[in-house]
TrEMBL record, chains A, B:
Family: In the C-terminal section; belongs to the class-I pyridoxal-phosphate-dependent aminotransferase family.
GO terms, molecular function: DNA binding; DNA-binding transcription factor activity; pyridoxal phosphate binding; transaminase activity
Protein name as catalogued: Putative 8-amino-7-oxononanoate synthase
Listed transmembrane segments: none
Species: Chitiniphilus eburneus
Keywords recorded for this protein, A-Z: Aminotransferase, DNA-binding, Pyridoxal phosphate, Transcription, Transcription regulation, Transferase
Amino acid sequence: MHTEPLYRQLASHYLHAIQAGTLRPGERMPSVRVLMQRHDVSLSTALQVCRHLESRGVLEARPRSGYFVRPQARAGLAPASEPVAALPDPARYVGIHQRVSDIVARGQAATVHTNLSGASGAPGLYPTEPLKNAAIRALRQHPDLFGQGVPTLGVPEFRAVIAKRALAARMNLSADEVLITQGCIEALNLALRAVAQPGDVIAVESPGFYGLLQVLESLGMRALEIPTSPQTGISLEALELAAQTYDRIAGVVVVPNLQNPLGAVMPEAHKERLVRWCAAQGIALIEDDTYSGTHNDEAPLSALKSWDRDGGVIHCASLHKTLAPGMRLGWISAGRWHARVEMLKFTQSRPNEALSQLAVADFMASGAYDRHLRRLRVMLRDQREQLAEAIATCFPAGTRLSVPNGGLGLWIEMPQGCSSATVFDAALREGIRIAPGLMFSNSNRFDGFIRLSCGFPYTRALDQALRRLADVVRRAG
Amino acid sequence: MHTEPLYRQLASHYLHAIQAGTLRPGERMPSVRVLMQRHDVSLSTALQVCRHLESRGVLEARPRSGYFVRPQARAGLAPASEPVAALPDPARYVGIHQRVSDIVARGQAATVHTNLSGASGAPGLYPTEPLKNAAIRALRQHPDLFGQGVPTLGVPEFRAVIAKRALAARMNLSADEVLITQGCIEALNLALRAVAQPGDVIAVESPGFYGLLQVLESLGMRALEIPTSPQTGISLEALELAAQTYDRIAGVVVVPNLQNPLGAVMPEAHKERLVRWCAAQGIALIEDDTYSGTHNDEAPLSALKSWDRDGGVIHCASLHKTLAPGMRLGWISAGRWHARVEMLKFTQSRPNEALSQLAVADFMASGAYDRHLRRLRVMLRDQREQLAEAIATCFPAGTRLSVPNGGLGLWIEMPQGCSSATVFDAALREGIRIAPGLMFSNSNRFDGFIRLSCGFPYTRALDQALRRLADVVRRAG
Ligand SMILES: Cc1ncc(COP(=O)(O)O)c(C=O)c1O
Ligand SMILES: Cc1ncc(COP(=O)(O)O)c(C=O)c1O
């Protein structure tokens, strides 16, 4: 389903060509005339294509010579390295809690002027004013709201709008199949509790979201870390090999779209193959779709759940990154485990409060939601690319980085010999907080990496902080 | 600490005498003159005592003869039976989930005009208007609220007001020792996860809150049901005996004040003994203090935690019954497990949203909160006593009932031979929903009981429904 305007489709086409190196920095972009002929489009569409790519910093106009692919500092950076296609670690169950908590506690205790450790954005990215107004409206429309029990399973209007939106990611859900949760994190807890027992092995991406490792540890489950590529996500070969080699795998958890911390998007063929393979093996597949809404392209990314035929895929998602970091709205559609998940949710925390659901249902049903998402995408992309440019400009030689097409962070491979633990501490002393690679695995494998948030406008203050951080990395090398 | 006015203290004194049968229905209350001499109080205080008891329906004025203890229909009811002081059941782990879910599902599927199955009150009991206004104020004061991350561990003002309020129940907590949760139910989950593992044995009250049995089952822990008295709460003898007889007990969960479903309040001496005994045995003691605020008397009930010397008591509570059924605000103070509980909360659901915390902190810091609690107590007491009167009037002979001094329900022992399962189904067919005794234990021991909510005003419609329910019980006998 392509609902994008024609000029956007063409712009994407050339953008991919540039990203793939088919058109190189400094090369001339096909002229407007060529574009008109080649794609049978009007002058105005051809011009829009070039202007759009110019506005995104991909092309530059040279007076009287036309458009050229802009040389980018980051073009000088090597992409982050691919994982070694070796066997994953045997399932481990170590004190990730302790490690993460220590890092978080030290981060919180320090006085920090620049916090790049988080994975959510600045308030300015979010429609706080209309959400506030929607909440006030909901309070006025439901004056007895706080005196009434909370609606079981979630507010019906909110569940309905979630189900409707899921269509765009090619899922076919009814509102009845959507259970509202306290963010994606509660959804993940419920999914894991529904499909596995303490002691069971769960395959996860490596590097992967540290919060998931904490959940697994707290539930007494064992994380089996599967190598994951910055380009294509979890390695299906490694996963299949692991399934032959180790204990029974009870479940797989993946972030198929804009993985944290890598930003990888799984190719469609990988998504389909993963769903089929899990179904064949009888392994529960849990998808965490927290970041889809931050993708550069307007065309929605597909969910794993869209390939689900027998209820074996559990879809978990959240509005925490894309609409409102100040709310705790997530949801789960748990396929054949859905009834069990409903029960566990009731037992674990009872249904969510109604107010923010009412406010968001109101907002999401209006055109304002799509306008917000468009603005969010553009702002995040700009911030992400500015940050990447700055890193390319000032980080020491040997730094590697793949700029993803969405998400709230950049995953940076530091020059050989740098330890993220050292950089974390040294940066804190400079008033800068980052997320050390160590947090994203039970192993020490990612100590050479750091994750930086691109959730903030690229101000002069941020630029200065980044230069200071570059010095810290240089000294750590 | 008695901060009650003198006339209230004296009124309580005589109320207890009446409840204990020292002054019997129809007997003359000591005259105002006698009260003045006996207690060395003024005429106006003595009059206040009598008028207060009259307003509570305990005394009646007879023209020119003074005050008399009012004959009460329910005086004809025997108190609910005491538990047999036998050994508790061996720890069980059966499908309470399934049983409770079936009952809940059937209740929800039926068309019901009178729902007496719940344990919360009608919206009219709660200050919905000022809470709504406080929420709107909070939104205006924090226009970026939904765009900012949620405050870790809870909103500071809210944690501070909870800590301050805890003083009245003789607990000495700092705001740092209060973690905000999704209601008491999340607090209980966290407490149990912190102190015990799957497979561990947890001692609980029997009959007891069915939600706790669900939590235990979902966590794979085994409930050891300890006989519990409608007057004095959990049987300490039975608990001590159980500890000698069965597996190691990892924790004890009790509702010391206004237990659900019995309404029992543990005597102070029992509270102290239980805390000391658990400390000596190294058994974690989890207290669920959900209902204290509904006590008839203004003087606050003491918390088990007020006897805690070594951090062995975990205090869990909630505003769901006493302030706002439409919010999900609870908290936990977990003594020596507090750091672990903080981590588990983060891992399970992240911190609560800020808005309702801000609204409630605002409301609770004002005098309006105490005014609300006073009104709630009086309204609930009236509703409870009217319901009890009606049951005494129209339920079949052999019905037994102890009217508790607070709480949101009545626990009714039906005449021999009645089954709560039968009564539940038959009542549903009449459009009336009740909570069958079967829900409150993993055994069938309480099938002879039902719990009715006293959260609703005693209207004519309710009176009619109750008469129809009485007929249902009669037919089931
Ligand atoms: C991949 C992933 N899943 C889930 C979460 C948590 O989501 P929520 O805030 O909705 O609970 C995060 C937050 O960082 C995340 O990165
Ligand atoms: C004894 C007891 N504890 C806890 C709860 C649940 O409390 P909350 O709604 O605050 O999660 C209830 C509700 O019925 C209850 O009766």
